[in-house]
Amino acid sequence: MKSTFKKLYLPAPLQCITLVVFAACIGFATNAQVVKPAGKTTAVCSVTRADMKEIDQQVRINIARLKAEGKLDFKKYKQAAEKPAPDAAAAPAANILFRWPMATASYRDFASWHIVNFVDLDPDSFNDNTDRNPDEIGDYNCGDRTYDGHAGIDISIDPYRWELKNSGFIKVIAAADGIIVFKHQGEFDENCGNLDNWQGSTGRGNNVVILHEDGTTASFYMHLKDGSLTTKEEGDFIYAGDYVGTVASAGRSSEPHLHFQVNTGYVDIANGNDETGNRIDPFAGSTCTESASTSWLNQLPYNDPAVLTLETHNAQPGFYTDACDQTITLSPDNAFTSGQTIWFRAKIRDWIDGATLTFNIYKPDGTLWRSYTRTNANAYREAYPTDQSYVLASTDPAGTYRYTVTFGGKTYSHYFTKSCQVSLGLSGAVSGQKGYMVSNFISSFQTIAASSANYIKYMADGYVTLQPGFRATSGCRFVANTEGCANSTAGSGRAVAATPATDAVNYKDAVANGGKTPVKIYPNPSDGLFNVQYSKKGKFSAGIVIRNATGQVVYKNALKQYDNTLQEQVNLAGKPKGVYLVEVLTNNERIVSKVMIQ
Fold it and tell me: How far from 551 is each of 185, 490, 502, CA to CA, in Å?
């Protein structure tokens, strides 16, 4: 079956949802709520001091070797390409700032991870009035979301961790500009459950280490999927946001997660016995922090409430039974008929305020169809509220329904249909949150006003045509995709997530919100042979990626250096007719345009 995670938007704006979280162990359930209470967390990995001493020594040796080979010249790389500001690279060398090291496709509406464990800043104690209690823990917020001696941040993936691990949907990205100084793979990546019973040669698993521009600070990316690591090698420069690997459970790990760690104090000597490379905590903001200022470009809040998924199923969906269970029975469906039972599922992150959540289901005309409430009495940080079911009556109207909840100040929506319509012609002004789902095509003359409250979605299995007069005004949000009644889900069984659209995030999207693209494509429409032109003052590096309506890459060229103007001829002759997305990737911008092949 296709995943509910796959969302390919055609000419519509790609919106970036950039949340991040660090893995750890979650609980399990067979029927209702799951996961972990808001109190003390459980170790999901156990990277030992011996593991870190080994890698610290190797990092120092590699730093010395790469410097001797002339491969640690940060200035050379920085002069080779312009960088947008603000950026980690723009910070003073002594103040490396990090972006979040995890990403999904920028068009996903839901969060895909949660932080489980922070750095343990106090192996002695924050709260027992003693200084020498080795069992005490304390995170930067004076809480206990860590475990004794934990030196990094664990980020767990949601909502179905093993499916996401297998698909590679969750990308790990470089948190700041730097040079790769260590890379290791070939490790088994499906360790689970007991941390004393794991396979592999190192507790770090498949991992990458990046040295940053001050020459002494390094970031670590551990437990990655075997075979997923970047093709870049030791000594290669990597920009913030560039692909590093995908999330898995290699090494001493109980479930798929990323262990992200920052160490500083490295020196460029080949002395394997000196103990340099001291752990730092990038978080700050309370009386318990190590530093007065954060090391994040945009620090996430300690409590970060979000909805992880909203789904509809044609049978009651299952759960994992334990940490090693990779088989989960799901029956996702978005196309129903009279007499069918619809099962509604949600998963919530950081639902610890005691609030009662109201889940509303709206008819195609926008009036309320059904409503139910749920509470989280045990303050689980990651919870599946008890699934709800309703039967579609013959008197219920045909069309697209909206399943929605507001949480953490944001409204989330999922769409499904009754008696799926084949095609739709749309016109007039439209506002609010509304979706249209069909089995063939949507043709639209609609106008969407400039308001952040306006979020309109077109979902068609065949294609979407935006007719002359269609307008999505800057300030609204509009998406169109080929995830209609059939393509959004198919069949039943375990979830399979799609590969996200890009290897990096936080690109500027010139087409988003109705903006004009600086990329020129001509002729357009085209018979398959066309030119791509993009101008930018001075020297810059850029590449071109072109995707078809299923999100597959049909054309890609390597990053090249340009002087003022990118001018490339592309030959897609012989490719199926239709709309293709053209992405110009330059520095940390993604400029999206479209071309019609006739």
Answer: 28, 17, 10
User: Letter for the amino acid at 141?
Assistant: N
Could you report the per-residue pLDDT of 351-386, keeping only the tens digit for each? Answer: 998 889 999 999 999 999 999 999 988 778 889 999
Q: Burial level of 514, CB count in 10 A (0-12/13-18/19+)?
A: middle
Tell me if 478 sits within 8 A of 452, measured CB to CB. Answer: no
Residue type, 273: N
Distance, CA of 185 to CA of 188 (rounded, Å): 9
Cβ proximity of 585 and 549 under 8 Å = no
15: pLDDT strictly greater than 60: no
Domains annotated for the chain, with CATH where assigned, are: 49-280 (2.70.70.10), 312-481 (2.60.40.1930), 512-597 (2.60.40.3080)
- Beta strands 306-313; 471-472: pairing state: unpaired
CB 135 within 8 A of CB 148: yes
Average pLDDT of the residues in 249-264: 95
The tokens 């309703």 sit on which residue? 390
Q: Report pTM.
A: 0.73
Phi and psi, residue 416, nearest 5°: -145, 170
- What's residue 554's pLDDT? 86
- The pLDDT tens digits for 404-450 are 999 999 999 999 999 999 999 999 999 999 999 999 999 999 999 99
475: left (phi > 0), else alpha (psi -120 to 50), else beta? Answer: left
Is 183:234 a contact under the CB 8 Å cutoff? yes
Peptide linkage before 282 cis (omega within 30 of 0): no
Average pLDDT, the chain: 82
